[in-house]
Each structure stands twice: as structure tokens, then as C-alpha cells.
Amino acid sequence: MEFTNHTTVAGFFLVGLTDHPELQPLIFSLFFSIYLVTILGNLLIILAVSSDLHLHTPMYFFLSSLSFTDICTSTTTIPKVLVNIQAQDHSISFAGCLTQVCFVLVFGGLESCLLAAMAYDRYVAICHPLRYTAIMHPCLCVLMVIMSLLVSTMNALLHSLMLLTLSFCTYLEIPHFFCELVQVMKMACSDINTNNLLIYTVTTVFAGVPLSGIIFSYIQIVSSILRIPTMKGRYKAFSTCGSHLSVVSLFYGTAFGVYMSSEVAGSSTKNVVASMMYIVIPQMLNPFIYSLRNREMKGALGRLLLGRPSL
After folding, report:
1. pLDDT tens per residue, range 267-293
2. DSSP assigned state of 308
3. 27 φ, ψ to 5°?
4. CA triplet 119, 204, 274: central angle to 5 degrees?
5. What's the rounded Cα separation, in Å, for the pair 133 and 11?
6. What is the Cα–Cα distance from 191 to 167, expressed in whole angstroms?
């Protein structure tokens, strides 16, 4: 097998879900529908939050940031899939692949950090309600989003730059519909032990800290809710966390599925489907989860669609 440096790599070939020509129109329709629903759903969330004065709170500020992140995540991957299918050309340049890897890591990491910030917001609201406005100051909320973006960008750049140190074989067929970090590394013919060590250490810390923060926040939240004397009060307090818990479960559940699919031997199709469940499906379902489980959001969306001003 021949070796080639990254500077001479022409590009990669993205196999996607299948390479059967007769199934390409169906796959195109599937991804186009998912992308359209994702963009419209998350855009409605952003417009509803920005147009309704009642939703100008830290909770909905983080929610609109999450919706914007979901739009960016989907835009990083799905349009390239649609173009490849339409042009009947599944190739992607090395620079394009590296850029896609970087942005997927940026927005994936940012979503994880935003979910942790939202968990902290619910912790303060339920455990320290009298100090909520003092603690969750708008400047703090903006700072948390900016810091999350900076940390996510640094993590993505670190992994992306490490890919530049690898040499690749001439057979560069990636069994995915987008350039995923681990799959790109598998195409390398040089030693990837350093890259693997970096993935396990940095990812463990980077993903572990937000997840630990979420778990700690909800342990404190549950403890506070159990001390509420009435069932009605408990239900009202817990209902403010229901949507966030659903999104957290969906995000980390699909992420765990991707990890297990890569560790357990199986077909490439199963790995692609697992990655699709992580990088595409949560971004599409998040707006539905928040709009269907949140009375304030349903009201704001109704006023937005009917053109009524917020009272």
C-alpha cells in the first residue's frame, strides 16, 4: 500500500449510508427533510425567544444559543451530503474534510457545554431561587457562552492540527457521510497512537467536566425538590427541568451509542447510522422537545406564528 503526505492528498471519498445508485434519491429526500425541519424548528425557537419579552431570561438565552448551535452543526454536515448526492460525486478535499472535522468538534463541544450551563441555570433557579437574579446575571450568561465557545474551539483545533502530522494511504474511502475524526484517523498509514491518546485524555476531560456538572446539578435539584412539602410544588419545580433532561438524555445517549458502535465490531452501516443518530437527529428533535414540553415556549411560538405581540 502506498503512502502519501497530507500535502499531496487529493481528497477522501465519503461512502455514506450506501453506495447503491437506486437508493440515492431516497437518501437525498431523507437528509433534505431532516435539514429543513432542523433549520425551521431551531430558527422558530430563536425568533420566539428574541421576540417575546417574557423569554428574555437566562434559561431561554441558553436555549436560543443551543438552537443556533444545532443549526450550525447540521449545516456543517448535511449540505455537503446533499451536494454529493445531487452531483453524484462523493469526494471531499483534504482541506474540506479537515474543516468539517474541526467544525463538527467545535459545535459538538459547544452543545455539551451549553447543556451544562443550562443545568447550572436550573440548579440556581430551584436551589437558590431568592438569589437567582443576582447569580445568573446577563453578563455571566454571555461569559459562559463565550468561554464555552473558546474551549470548544481550542479542543477542535488541537485535534485538527494533530491530523496534519499524519501520513495517509492512497486508498481514502471513509465509510461515513461526513468526515468524522476517528474515521479519518483510520485512513492514516502512519502511527496514530499519539492521536488516540490525545482523543482519550482530552475527550475524557472535555466531555467529563460538563457531564459531571450536569449530574451534580441534578443531584442537588432532586434533593431540593424532595424537600418541597406538597406534590404540586414538586411537580411544578421538576417540570421546569423536564425538557432539559430530555435533551441531555438524547445528546449523551446518542453520543454513547456512537462510542459503543466504534468499540464493538460491526458493519460500517451500523456505525454510520449511530453517527447519524448523534450528529443529525438530536439537532432536529431539540426544538420539538422544548416546544411541546414547555408552556411558555408554546405560547411564544403561537404568538409568533399568529403575528401577535407579547403582552
Report:
1. 456 666 767 777 888 888 888 888 766
2. P
3. -65, -40
4. 80
5. 52
6. 9
Looking at residue 131, the DSSP 8-state letter turns out to be: G
Long-range contacts of 294-302 (CB under 8 A, 24+ apart): 294/243, 296/54, 296/55, 297/45, 297/48, 297/55, 297/60, 300/48, 300/49, 300/51, 300/52, 300/54, 300/55, 301/44, 301/45, 301/48
In the numeric block, which cell numbers belong to residue 257? 451509542
Match 474551539 to its residue by C-alpha cell.
153
Q: How far is CA 273 from CA 17, 37, 169, 186, 278, in A?
A: 7, 19, 26, 18, 9
**Closest Cα to residue 116, out of 81, 92, 159, 151?**
151
How far apart, in whole angstroms, are the C-alpha atoms of residue 241 and residue 41?
Answer: 20
Rounded to whole angstroms, what are the CA distances from 144 to 86, 149, 244, 248?
A: 40, 9, 17, 18
Q: What is the DSSP string of 261-276?
A: HHHS---HHHHHHHHH
Predicted TM-score (pTM) of this structure: 0.87
pLDDT digits (tens, 9 = 90+) for 195-254: 888 888 887 788 788 888 999 998 998 888 888 888 887 787 777 787 788 888 888 877
Q: Which of 104, 136, 131 is nearest to 118 (CA)?
A: 136
Question: Which amino acid, one-letter code, is at 122?
Answer: R
